[in-house]
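In the present case, backbone shapes were mapped to integers, as reproduced here:
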Amino acid sequence: MNEIKELLTNLGISSAAAVYLANIVMIVGIAVICVLANFVTKQVVLRIVTHYIRNNRFTWDNYILERKVIQRLCHLVPAIIISYFSRSFPAYEDLILQGVAIYLIVVAILVLDALLSAANDIYSTYEISKSRPIKGYIQVVKIFVFIIGGILVVSSLIGRSPLILLSGIGALSAVMLLIFKDSLLGLVAGVQLTSNDMVRVGDWIEMSKYGADGDVIDISLNTVKVQNWDKTITMIPSYALISDSFRNWRGMQNSGGRRIKRSLYIDMNSIGFCTPDMIERFKKIHLLEEYLLDKERDIERHNVENEVDRTVPVNGRAMTNIGVFRAYVERYLEQHPAIHQSMTRMVRQLAPGETGLPLEIYAFTNTIVWAVYEGAQSDIFDHLLAVAPEFGLRVFQNPTGGDMREMLGTLKS
């Protein structure tokens, strides 16, 4: 500064004007140096570092680059230059250093924010991240970083120790609790969700209260993001998963089989004893041939041992069309290629009602892929609905317009 003033004075400029011009020249010079340093840092040094990171065998440093940790560190260079030249302005040196300190705090906050995000990205590459996500904890740390950074900025502005500000936070604790209520609830919920392994990224959950039915794609401090099957996104508060009930389909996905639990409703007026002609016809069905022969011998032995008078149909034991049909369905499921044979499989009757006799199929497919599961389930019931009349059974259905027209046509004739 003195050299510039002396040079300007030698050029014939008055001392007062030389002081102002020297300040202007110095400010412009510092600005030019900062711009050049910033250009060299970002266009030369940063490119060299980026090339090295992109071409080494490590992958974790790529996330640091993508989160712009290094790019944000480049902002420190102009601040260091300004701090170095601050002694050229003795009257404003303290003010300049104060501004530089605030700037460095802001840059440090941004660097830590990016570094924490990169740490979460790196952790997400490991399989354990699905069962033990840390995004919520990272967000809590970020909150503390921003709070501490804000305290340091305010203390720099007022020129007081940050400990004085920290001592006054106790009085604001109630206000802080209200402001960060959701974050605190989310933190507690996140700890419980993680420690109890209640939900993971990738789980299929169903929560009708919030209209959620799909895959969990993100777990953060305050919310759990669910992508529904219609591709919409539902945001659920983290603490709602603790306070409310939800269904997690992970057990089904891990088992390798998905349950079929659906009923055929049989018209009870079509249920009756099998006639000899019906039994002979049923014996031609490959799945029933062995069953019918064993059943006939068993029934015959029982009736002979108990001297049953079979001239009356209700005496003794006899086969019914619904019983034979149930045996057919059991054997059909047993040989079906889409049914998981090592998991529960049964065909049972439920309590009859106004819609007929429910014949429930309870089994598991050997796939959890939704489209394949629905296709297998539809194929099974397509067949059973079509084959039921072969056993003299009618599937219950409320009268339709076609039924009414047929009835009216019969009455007219």
Notes: The beta strands are 204-207, 212-219, 223-228, 233-237, 247-248, 258-266, 346-349, 357-365. The chain has a mean pLDDT of 84.
